[in-house]
Design a protein that fits this description.
Length: 305
């Protein structure tokens, strides 16, 4: 039960982080995409720093959840980040929450509850061997490269979605490394500091964060967040089962599990079509003066989402 509470709190912290980071990234100059200058620009913005603080809080809560629960339990609960993000964003940008949004939230909640009830995930007690780590890292890196290459070749919302998927996959693998790292906690601080998984987790987390900033810089939150939030738990569950021997029920339970995942996807699509936020973003974007935005001039009204 404690793992569930901590995972939901982590989702809430991540939701606040996404909104604050989008608020900062929306007005960064377009030519900073995929450049270190994007981070150096963002680090001077209080909203972005607040978002990083919330992200760190979510990271710590997620790590605490993984000490008592498996990836297949903790990571799907992070889907709660999506409706929380939309509700926080609607509040922050003074956009009315429509019945469609509540329907999406209901579908997500029902899908998540149904999936967890049917899957009944249990923690695994197997630590991956060297070959498993090499294969999983190579596959993950290959998928990330494909997503980033496709994102660079496209533009607009499609780029934001592809980078959101890449960031979600990166954070999922970060969670895998986090799960490996928390296994070292009983050995004390010296053992933890000497663990390769700790530094690999930090590197993976920073790369994922960079991808997320570019995703938020490339398009509206309603394009990025569903891709990010759905990819992360789905990939994490697969990693948990394949690498740590975590168990989810199969056989006749597969049908309600798939139904739950379908409801999660349906709710995510509904939220991504949250009309008031999309329209407000479109209208504000139409009023944007790129030259003034790059200079930080007055009169620029960047897209709120």
């Amino acid at each position: 039960m404690i793992a569930v509470v901590l995972a939901v709190l982590a989702a809430a912290a991540n939701a606040v982080a996404s909104v604050l980071q989008r608020q900062a990234a929306r007005s960064a100059p377009a030519d900073e995409a995929f450049r270190p200058g994007l981070i150096s620009d963002l680090v001077r913005r209080p909203a972005w720093l607040g978002g990083i603080g919330a992200l760190i809080a979510g990271f710590l809560l997620q790590a605490a959840a993984l000490t008592s629960g498996g990836l297949a339990l903790v990571q799907p609960l992070l889907v709660a980040e999506l409706p929380i993000t939309m509700l926080v964003a609607g509040r922050m940008f003074r956009v009315r929450v429509t019945p469609q949004t509540w329907l999406a939230v209901g579908a997500l909640t029902a899908g998540l509850a149904g999936f967890l009830a049917a899957a009944s995930p249990t923690p695994g007690h197997r630590l991956p061997g060297l070959l498993t780590w090499v294969i999983s890292a190579a596959v993950t890196a290959g998928l990330l490269a494909c997503c980033v290459a496709a994102a660079i070749a496209t533009g607009g919302p499609a780029r934001a979605v592809l980078l959101g998927v890449a960031a979600g996959l990166g954070f999922a693998y970060t969670a895998v490394l986090m799960k490996r790292t928390v296994e070292e906690l009983p050995g004390g601080a010296r053992t933890l500091a000497g663990s390769w998984s700790l530094w690999a987790m930090v590197a993976a987390g920073l790369c994922s964060l960079f991808l997320l900033q570019n995703a938020l810089h490339s398009g509206p939150l309603v394009a990025v967040q569903p891709a990010l939030t759905v990819t992360d738990p789905v990939a994490s569950t697969a990693y948990g089962v394949a690498m740590f021997g975590e168990d989810i029920r199969t056989g006749p339970w597969v049908l309600p599990e798939l139904t739950g995942m379908a409801l999660i996807l349906y709710g995510s699509v509904l939220l991504s079509r949250y009309a008031p936020l999309r329209e407000q973003a479109r209208m504000a974007g139409a009023r944007r003066d790129p030259g003034a935005e790059g200079r930080g001039g007055e009169g620029t009204r960047p897209a709120p989402m």
